[in-house]
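Annex B. Sample input.
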Amino acid sequence: MSDEQIDIIGMGAALVDVFADVTDADLDRLNMPKGSMTLIDTEASKALLDQINIHTSTAGGSAANTIAGTASLGMSSGFIGKVANDPFGDIFAGDLSEMNIQLFGHPLNNETPTGKCIVLITPDAERTMNTLIGAAAFITPEDLDENLLKQTKVFFAEGYLFDSPQGAETFFKACDMVHSGGGKVALSLSDSFCVERHLDTFNKALAGPVDMVMSNDAEAKAMFGGASIQDRVTAMQQKNIDGVITRSAAGAVIVMSNEVIEIAAETVDRPVDLTGAGDQFAAGFLSGVALGKTMENAGRRGAVSAAEVIKHIGPRPQVNLQELIASAGLA
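Annex B, continued. Sample output.
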């Protein structure tokens, strides 16, 4: 049990991003459509790893990417996720440790490997992904540290968590622990298909313990319906749901019961890779929430953080976000 207060705790799938360079001929040989994203099992993962040359392996996963951002923002940060007691699990834990992020959860000790996203990159920079959920699917309430969560200012979970057999149960128990200590709960909808898979559970979460929902407009449409973003904003206010809807270059809308705040996107002349923009917007925004900033300040923090990550390849910041926030006058 921990006695240390942490600003922000994330929970979600603990995945290792594994990168390898391949040719179009390699993809044909592997029978993989270029640009596809496929869920694979343990045996398929082993077979694929045997046929490629890995050049980089780093900790990944949506909520973990957000927590990497909060750490870069100077927030004391932690992550609850399930890895196996194997080399890829060591990579995940080691990467988080280098960022001063504490990893919570008991390692899985069976034949199930650490989850991984195997990213095959062709010379045209197109990415073809094969994802093994692996150990990440086995998160349980036993992985929660009640004392820690009672002292957490902001708890952030990804919707993908509900794909795990005990993910929803673990989420709701974590929320109870966080609220018992006065902390806030934020939930990312993750993607529109995730919303469709778990609509009833999402509705239960948003009507219950979730203080703030994070989504892009496609996810918000799947969740709240409506022909326009204004329809979705109205639906959220009618249901007394606070949250943020991001809209890429159109910025973001912060929705509160009695207020709607539009946040402009930061200008980026040459976006390189949009991967991770939503994750880093969440990092910036939640840092503001944890620090008790205004909603406008929190939203601008999100915009600055998102703008940094789309300037380079990869979903995590490559510069100190805390310094960017200070230079933007948002500290």
